[in-house]
Write a structure and sequence with these properties.
The protein is of the alpha+beta class. Helices cover about 20% and strands about 20% of the residues. The protein is globular, with a radius of gyration of 19 Å.
Length: about 260
C-alpha cells in the first residue's frame, strides 16, 4: 500500500494544466490546445441522438476492449463523452498515465503526437465541465471518472473536457470519493484495466509501450454499432490539416 504522502502526490498530479512556464509558453499552449479542439472529423461516426439514457461504449485499445456504461445521473459528462466519441476525438489517444494499484488515465489529445511528450496530461478540447459529483457513486473497481485540476486553481471542481480515468484499485482510490465526478462504470474488460495498470512505465507513469485507444464505439443490444467511415483529412501544401471552415471559404478567381 502506498504511503499517504505518495497518494497525495498522485491526487495532485491529476491536475490537467501545469502552473509552470512563463506567459509566452502559456500562449503557445493555448494555441496548440485550440488547434487540437478544431481537428474533429466533419462526419460523425454515429448519431448521438440514437443512443439510450445510459449508453454503453466499447473503448477499443491495442491491448483489448473495455466496455463502459455512462450514468444518466451525470448528464453533462455523459453527453460530452458521447459527443466526443461521435467526433472520433478519442481515436489514437494514449493512456498517458498508468499507476498500478491506483488507476489508468487517458483523454489528452496531445498524446496523438509524441512531439508533445513533455506536455502529456495538459491537453483537452478547450473547455471544462461543471462538476456532477454524486455521493451515490464511489470509486469502485472499474469506475469511470473525470480528471480535473486541483482544488487550489479549481475550487468548483470542474472536470476536464476530455480526460478520464478508470479505477484499478478501489481501496487506493476511495480517498477521491466526493471530490471527482464519477460518470460511468466498467461492465466488461476489468482484466484489460489490470493488464494496462501492470505494464512497465517510465518516471512520468507513462507506459513504456504505448497503450492506444483505437476507437470508442457505442454498443446496442450487446453489439457494436456500425459507424460511418472517417473522412480523409484535407491538408495544405505544408502538410497541415485544413479545417472544414477553411475548406468552405470561397476561392479567389485566378487572373
Amino acid at each position: 500500500m502506498k504511503s499517504n504522502f505518495t497518494n497525495l502526490l498522485i491526487i495532485t498530479s491529476l491536475a490537467l494544466f501545469s502552473c509552470k512556464g512563463n506567459k509566452g509558453n502559456q500562449q503557445q499552449d493555448d494555441q496548440l490546445q485550440k488547434k487540437d479542439s478544431v481537428t474533429m472529423a466533419t462526419t460523425l461516426a454515429f448519431d448521438p441522438a440514437a443512443l439510450g439514457e445510459e449508453p454503453v461504449f466499447d473503448i477499443n485499445t491495442n491491448v483489448g476492449t473495455i466496455r463502459i456504461k455512462l450514468y444518466k445521473e451525470t448528464p453533462k459528462h455523459r453527453d460530452n463523452f458521447v459527443k466526443l466519441a461521435s467526433e472520433r476525438f478519442y481515436d489514437n489517444i494514449l493512456f498517458h498515465r498508468v499507476i498500478n494499484g491506483f488507476m489508468i488515465q487517458a483523454g489528452d489529445p496531445l498524446t496523438k503526437d509524441t512531439v508533445n511528450a513533455a506536455r502529456f496530461g495538459t491537453g483537452g478540447p478547450g473547455y471544462t465541465i461543471q462538476a456532477e459529483i454524486n455521493p451515490k457513486f464511489k470509486h469502485k473497481k472499474g469506475a469511470l471518472a473525470a480528471a480535473r485540476r486541483g482544488d487550489a486553481g479549481n475550487p468548483n471542481r470542474e472536470s476536464s473536457g476530455s480526460q478520464f480515468y478508470l479505477v484499478q484499485d478501489a481501496a487506493s482510490c476511495s480517498q477521491l470519493d466526493g471530490q471527482y465526478t464519477i460518470f460511468g462504470e466498467t461492465i466488461n474488460g476489468i482484466n484489460i484495466i489490470d493488464q494496462i495498470a501492470t505494464m512497465p512505465t517510465d518516471r512520468n507513469d507513462r507506459p513504456v509501450s504505448d497503450v492506444k485507444i483505437i476507437s470508442v464505439i457505442p454498443v446496442v443490444d450487446g453489439k457494436q454499432v456500425a459507424t460511418a467511415k472517417a473522412p480523409t483529412p484535407v491538408v495544405d501544401a505544408n502538410g497541415n490539416q485544413v479545417t472544414q471552415a477553411e475548406q468552405n471559404k470561397p476561392q479567389q478567381a485566378k487572373k
